[in-house]
Amino acid sequence: MTAMTLQSISSSDIASVRQSHPQAFGSTFSTITRWAIWLSVIFYVIGSLYYFEVYRLLDASGRALNLIAAFFNWEDMGEWQYRQIYIGIAQTLGMAFLGTLLGTVMALFIGFFAARTTMPFVVVRQIVRRILDILRGVDQLVWGLVFVRAVGLGPLAGVLAIAVSDTGTLSKLYSEALENVDRKQVEGIRSTGAGPLKIARYGYLPQVLPIFISQSLYFFESSTRSATILGLVGAGGIGMIIIERFRANLFDQVAFVVLNVLVCIFVIDWLSKKIRARLIGETSH
């Protein structure tokens, strides 16, 4: 078979190839559709920018620069009430730890009822999954408002909000991990005549426990940031101090508090990595 040169290709040859392979040449309809989609996206983006008044950023640029400058203009540092700030940070870390711990413990049990491999009854499994959808679908900030209303201001509301939200998400992640275990080990335990509890303990947990630990450590880091936000709605912790300083226009103290929170998150991330490496066997590259 010889390749045709450009000079030897005729209009009839092109028409023949176009007829035998129409998808290679495209069509007028597909071209119009593609351009219509692109134009719709472009007009939608432009319309969204106008609707949300993004152009106001130009008017606020001066105020924004002044605000940023205020963050780094630290004055009267001797009167910053450091004890109150660090007590708030300690409350935030305690809220995140206790909330994640409660969520992990509850998810450890609920996950078995939501997994297809450990819960054979479809009705029970679907009910549990729908409840988890509700827990996971409501934002953590909304849970914070609910529990502030229920138990009053303070860290308890933040702990409960984190625990409920983490339970919904961790239970889903745990159930997915349980559905992907090696069935040979489970069947080996079952063949010895072990009951459901022993099958879960010796067949499932040894395989999924490293995943559970890793996910809970990640959620502890995430909950630390969430606990900071929950304080803004009255759930205790450093968030209440941040909102108080904002209202008083003490932006330099806000910057100091945020920097301390960032340092705590960096330390938690470093410790989490060390714990995962020790318990799970992760190696550095």
From TrEMBL:
<comment type="similarity">
    <text>Belongs to the binding-protein-dependent transport system permease family.</text>
</comment>
<dbReference type="GO" id="GO:0015416">
    <property type="term" value="F:ABC-type phosphonate transporter activity"/>
</dbReference>
<feature type="transmembrane region" description="Helical">
    <location>
        <begin position="141"/>
        <end position="164"/>
    </location>
</feature>
<feature type="transmembrane region" description="Helical">
    <location>
        <begin position="227"/>
        <end position="248"/>
    </location>
</feature>
<protein>
    <submittedName>
        <fullName>Phosphonate ABC transporter, permease protein PhnE</fullName>
    </submittedName>
</protein>
<feature type="transmembrane region" description="Helical">
    <location>
        <begin position="35"/>
        <end position="52"/>
    </location>
</feature>
<keyword id="KW-0813">Transport</keyword>
<keyword id="KW-0472">Membrane</keyword>
<dbReference type="InterPro" id="IPR035906">
    <property type="entry name" value="MetI-like_sf"/>
</dbReference>
<dbReference type="InterPro" id="IPR005769">
    <property type="entry name" value="PhnE/PtxC"/>
</dbReference>
<dbReference type="Pfam" id="PF00528">
    <property type="entry name" value="BPD_transp_1"/>
</dbReference>
<dbReference type="GO" id="GO:0005886">
    <property type="term" value="C:plasma membrane"/>
</dbReference>
<keyword id="KW-1133">Transmembrane helix</keyword>
<feature type="transmembrane region" description="Helical">
    <location>
        <begin position="85"/>
        <end position="115"/>
    </location>
</feature>
<keyword id="KW-0812">Transmembrane</keyword>
<feature type="transmembrane region" description="Helical">
    <location>
        <begin position="254"/>
        <end position="271"/>
    </location>
</feature>
<feature type="domain" description="ABC transmembrane type-1">
    <location>
        <begin position="89"/>
        <end position="272"/>
    </location>
</feature>
<dbReference type="InterPro" id="IPR000515">
    <property type="entry name" value="MetI-like"/>
</dbReference>
